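Same chain as my last thread, 1893 residues:
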Amino acid sequence: MASRVWQHPYVNIFKHIKIEEWKKSSREGDVTAYMDKTLKCSVFRIRGSIPASNYILLPKTSSQSLGLTGRFIYLLFRPSPDKHFVVHLDIAAEESQVIRVSFSNLFKEFKSTATWLQFPFLCGAAKDSVYDSTAKTARHDLVGPAPPTVRWTCLTMDLQYVLSVYLNRRHSHLKSIKLCANLSVKNIFTSDLLLDPGLSFSEAKQAGLVSVQGTGPMPREMCFPVPKGGRWHDLYDYIRFPSDGSKMPFDSIQKGLPSPISMCAPGSKSPSREVSRRVNLSKPVQDRVSLIQQITSPKLLPKNRTTLVTSSVPELGVVTSGEGVVTSGEGVVPSGEGVVTSELNAKHSQEDWGSHGDDPERGCWSHTSGSYHSASRTPSVVEGGVHVYARPEDDSAFRVEDGEGEVVCTAVTRPISLPSVKESRHSKLYPDPILRLNRIIGFGGATLKCALWTKSGDEVVYPCHAIIISMNISSGQQRFFTGHTDKVSALAFTGNTTLLASAQTGSQGVVRVWSYAKGSCLAMFRTHAHSLSSVSFSYGGGVLCGVGKDNHSKTMVVVWNTQHVSRGQVTVLAKAHTDVDIQTMKIAFFDDTRMVSCGRDNVRLWRVRGGALRSCPVNLGEYHSLDFTDVAFEEGQRSHGDPEDRSLFASSRSGHILEIDYRNVVIRNVRRLLPTQQSHSKRREKQTFSTGPGIAVSSISVSSAFCATGSEDGYLRLWPLDFSTVFLEAEHEGPVSLVSVSADGLSVLSATSTGNLGYLDVSSRGYGTLMRSHTDTVLGFSVDGIRRRLTSASRDGTVRVWDMDSMQQLFDFVSEDTPCSVAFHPSLQVFSCGSTSGTVRVFDIASSKLLAEHSQHRGQVVGLVFSPDGESLYSVGSLGALVLYNSSSEDHHVVRVLGNVVARGTERGPDALVVSSDSRCLAFVGPSEYTVTIMDARSLDELLRVDVSILDMESTRLDSALKVCFSPASTAHLLVTTTANKILWVSAKSGRLLREASHVHKQQCSSVVVSEDGRYLLTAGHNVVKVWDYSMQLDINSQMFIGHSQPISQVNFTPDQMSVVSVGDAIFLWDFLAHPRESGTCSPSSRALITPHKTANGEPDVQVMLLSNGMPRGIAPLPFSHPPCLDISAIDAIGLEDSCPCEELEQIPHRSVHGPTSGPSPCPDPAPDPAPDMAAGSFLKVTEMASAPDSSPLRTNQNRELDNVESEEDKTVRPDCYKHFTPRFKTSTLDQTAGNAHQSGKQGLSLKAVIGYNGNGRGNMVWNPDTGLFAYSCGSVVVLENLHTGSQRHWQGHTEEVSTLAVSNDALMVASAAGGRDGATSLICIWNVQDGACRKTMSHHRGAVQSMAFSRDDLLFLSVGDFREPEVALWSSRSFQLLSRVGVAGPLHDVAFSPSAASQLACVGRLGVAFCQVTSSSPDPELQMQNMAVPEEVGEVELTALCYNTNNILFTGTNGGHVCVWDCLSQRCFMTWEADQGEIGVLLCRGNRLLTGSNTRRLRLWGVSAVQSLRPGGAGGGTATTEDRGALVLLEQEIVLDGTVVSAAFDDVLDMGIVGTTAGTLWYINWVDNSSIRLISGHKTKVNDVVFSPGETHFATCGEDGSVRVWCSPSNELVMQFLVLNQNCKCVCWSPEQGSSTGGACVAAGYSDGTLRIFRLSSSEMELKLQPHPVAVTSVQYSVNGLVLLSAGKDGLIAVSSPVTGKVVRVLGDHKGALITTMQCVKKQYKEFGLKGNDMWLAASADRRVSIWASDWMKDKCELLDWLTFPAPAHPKDPDSLPPSLAAFSPTDPGLVIYTGFGVEKELSFYSLSLKQVVKKIALSHWATSLSLSSKGHLVAVGSQERVLKLIQSSSGRFQDFLHHSDSLQTCRFSPSGELLFSSAYNEILLWEVQGL
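reply #2:
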């Protein structure tokens, strides 16, 4: 506050800094003082041909600050006649950012970046001069040299306004001023007051104006002299910015009309106002009426001020563009620009004016006729009207055909809004900001030799053109440092990485210093150098040096003092000019005053002493002609001795590496990197240094332990400090341009000249790619929304496919000609690419195959697009041709070619044509540049042609079209951008102009697109992205976003509408923060164009709320609104009394019924007697065998045999329809005596995730769109998944396969049902959704439960048994007591309650439809049924599905594909039609839309609005013929899925929903864009193997269907799938990390035909196919180092194959004749066994034999180490179903082998290889079917045929049982870290988190 007091009322800057002494200011060039005759005082004149070399700088250095806080700056100056001048103002914002504001008559147009604003200055001429008269009528070429009669000028600039409007920043203070030639200046001062130079003190006193009111006259010392009787405005020019001139060019600083204050008569006390009169407004004014209010709207009045109310409504007056003030209670508020008048409705009263003045929403000003009035002048009338030019804050003006509101103008210069029928609200686009930069795919720009490690080694900092990026190497998250206006050329960190320095290239070298943690710029300073190429920070951060070029292109070195950079102070310590070349320069980390540099022919040592920078060269001797590229100091702090006593390393392009003694400045050693010498075997030999051509070393980095070099042969090499040999090297795709060792020495960062950035992990020898990048401008892109991939085409000649989540490059297609446009197919993994040669190519990504190639164009392909339905592909060429291709066929053959229909030229690429969202229309610019054509998309017949050149009669030039864009089909708009920077809204049906927006961008709009919901408009112009309100009815309609350093080629929304992608210099991915579903209703502005349909109650119909295609699973589907708060207290009170949580159920296993695994079970059942006491801890018998290795252990835990009670075979025949649920056949039986782990205090395993969906269920998926509830079943587990986060909760209360689910209407309860085994009764569980507790269990139906439903009021619950006992049971939803039950003669398939009456329901089955009524006349409700037969016209069929609509109409589906429509009142069928060729199993009806799903895999959407007319008693009277019935239903859309439809749940309008299929897939369906997205994936058949990748980032599964699936961890998302038809994939394994470091990870799989297939994940393709076996492969494993692949066949033969060549190296027949069940490889030094090597592996066969092998595959050695045979009974009862033989090495001691299999006892045996004996045995309760050992905690996981997963601690024998699977376990597998465990049973995959025992 104190800093502002001394600056009031103004600050004379020249006097304040004592400019005549030049101590606090500086001058350069021709700066002189002279006596001006006009002003009669001394002024400064600045002259020179180069403005940048002749200037006055205030203060003296750029590191200092003036600290002037005044809002207005006043510059008294005169431009030199016929010359140009430049003025720079550096303004500090409150956001700690320095903004440069420049104005000059050199600037032709306004330009802006994040830190620089450039305004054109229009020099005025003497009044009535020739120049003055011509300037008034000129419309172009206004900016130029000052006229000969230029006058002294007072320029007033509102700094607060400039920063707020143009950059959305808050003004803090003025930092510096730079006045450049050619001009004369009298003085400069700042003030918070708006002062009028033409107003004298006497005039101000007579007008009642004082300084405290915010305005007043100019101070005497600042005034221009005015002769007595003269007028100030006749002698001088007054320019105020924001100006009120003609505004051409826009955003220019120019002379306006005289200030209204100066027009007051000297003798008058208050000025009089002219009589208002009506005027005719010209067309330009009428078009801009609605903009004037938002342009001139002031800030809201302070709360402590009294709003003045007018005594009456002032009369309307003429338009005034003069300045004025409006008085309020305490002062005078400066007004803005002129306003436009309109007709005033006389009904508005005085009270209306007063209320509007206080309304913060309206933001209006009130006016008074009190002490002072603004004077108004009669404006000049041109063409019969008044032209008003004003600059809106969003740079746009638009025109609508009908007025949207009223704006009134009085004598005040601020507008006042009147309330009208159409309410006008002052608003802006929300949210603010609407875009947030999320990720950038790109690296480099000015240099590819710049990337830094942070000290922690967790993040890497690198430039991407004008933006600096900090990336976390583990998560890939990016932070951005923005502020540079040109490409960043150098970066430097301090030793502790707290400060970051960056330099930009270009003519004006700028250096910025950042706080790395906060991401804020601490200081920005310029140097006399340009093209800065290198910067270096001292270790402590006190010194910074930089290297660039001066004006004479000589090398210039500058050293700055940055000790006080946190306060924004940076001073120059020293600078020097040199003729030597400097490639890089670094400050010594041990001394801030010493530097070293290298370049062509020199290595120099530098030192700062006494303010001077001096250097001395290193005597290079015979190496003086080398071109040195990099230098690096020897690292390490010396505890004693001179810190300068260390080595300096310098690399060169000739391959020489010089080691220099820094202290003595002499060369110690010279080494040279030579090309690899090839021997006769073509193997790489040891690197040597000798004579001959060397490999250019581009970069060198030294740590305390080794040295890293990067060379142009593409290799990163690590050397010891003596360079004796290479101990590690990594080959890159291109020349290595940078290497940098991290502070801890564990990682090495590398960059290549091809735009790749990655790092080498020294310890693991693994290489990770951080970023790949195009090396030239990105010309176009396209997004695959389903797979979240992005393809881009670049001028570098490549087309690349990127993963949008990880930013990793997936594919790279190189073309001989330059690709210029790309387009993704909307659903397939196919994209097309157009090139400059005119060729259009179509690629299949999955197979990396070229599908088609067409050369129909002679010129460049400027447009390429698929139709949204995927049926067609279109391309246009630069010479006017349009080509239509059939994209439904693989060859994409040409359908039609039209010539000379598209406007010629390349400027409209890469998106020169567009297709409407309904795939019906095609639009483009042509045949000429002045016309736009709309064609039929299928036939290419012309539908409409619009001439845009005649749309704007105001312009004197013909306007031509640039880009076109369709809005959503609901609006039927076509948007056209023009060369006049306009956007035209044209009706796509009539061609009528609906609206236009002007001045959209400062330069031509390069891209335009509309969001799918029609609420937002996205444009790109030059290097700016703008987001607009589509309706253009806000006060501030747009938001502007910068970041690109080059013009933007293309911008678009992603298909999910959650992101925006812009490309140009790089690929920018922005988060779009205004997703349509974030607000439940449309904004007032959007209602003008998109008006939702209203329902009967006035609520918006969600049917019109468009959803996006390609919606990612994480956010789809979302509810349209928040769920209502429901009162559930009554339900809780009733339910707790009647339900006992611990009641015992008959005929079901004793089993806990509980909620999620994270909490204790609320309803535990008492454990059966045979089960151990879990609370006290359960242990298995452990027998130590050290003393008696041959003795047999005692059995301590023998389980009794359970008698299998065979139930009586059902006499009922199963219905012949897929709708009826049939449990999967199982041979396993649940062991009811197994202990329950959840009754223990600590769980050894916690269920983390369930992978897959049970496609064998029926109706076993529920979804509520309002609450987001999403549940489905997999095996016996009910999974609740959060669609936003992907997290899961699990309900485990069943032991058998869950058949069906049902959800209550309030979504608070879910019912799940599972059948009983062997004729036992089924179990129904009722779950509370909120806490996951099991509210009630019920058991009634024998067999399975076919269907369940809740009544409309949720008071009744219905369950239906399967064909073995077709019975309908009615339950109370409060107590879940059985109310009634009714048996049916035939099987029932489906049941549903009526939505109109809670007591009505219907069932369908073999005998037809049964209409049911619940009667409550007696104390116990009864269920009455009325059966109706199937109509004869559909034949002998069964009704399989049903659904109601709200008009008492029932739809039923048949197993023949018909839909029958029933009238519920008359209970008769009045209509049928064939809806499918197969059985219909799913029916859903919402309003007038019907959904059918069948076993033909088709999902169809029907329009059935006309069915009502056939209803008995309806308009049609039921008399329509069969032909008429076909016209009553309309097939609207159809989707073919991957399996039979078994479950479906949709929203209230059938726009979006989720569908389950028998393939184990849950699909998200969006009918709006006819898209389908895979939500949940799973195996349909048995899963044979599950295995983790070595890094646990992925896991792979294989199944009987021949598929190998790769999943991502921890999201558990399916990444890719490899399918081999008609084969059974028996086993799968991952390649080790060592073996896959160069080409990426591989997965090897064995198949039933004896083949092995190796799949490369990076390319998503099969890399190699081997046939080492004639029979099925049962096991496969990579060796430890990945050199060989071990595979075992069903015949017992083991093959050793090369994974590179596919050749079988050797075959081992030791196990011949016995099936190999297990193989495992470990790394083990086995010198104690008398063998050499470190690779040990075992194989176990079905004959209970285990072989242990020692091998050294590098030397092709493999020897048998041990052979184990385990005894077993001679005559097993069932020899065909014996348990497998399983063996594994102990993870903690590879010398210990654990075995289990069929034997005398059920046990685990621990065999010591060193002792040659079994050292321990652990008894088991079941035969093991799977075995896995954990790397920590001595844990063993064992699966059994009895569905028990047993976790055992091998040291103590403690165990826990987990009964979560519904079938026998065939696989259990620990992760390499031992923290996770997989278990699988048939197609159920459970992922467990290991807690430990």
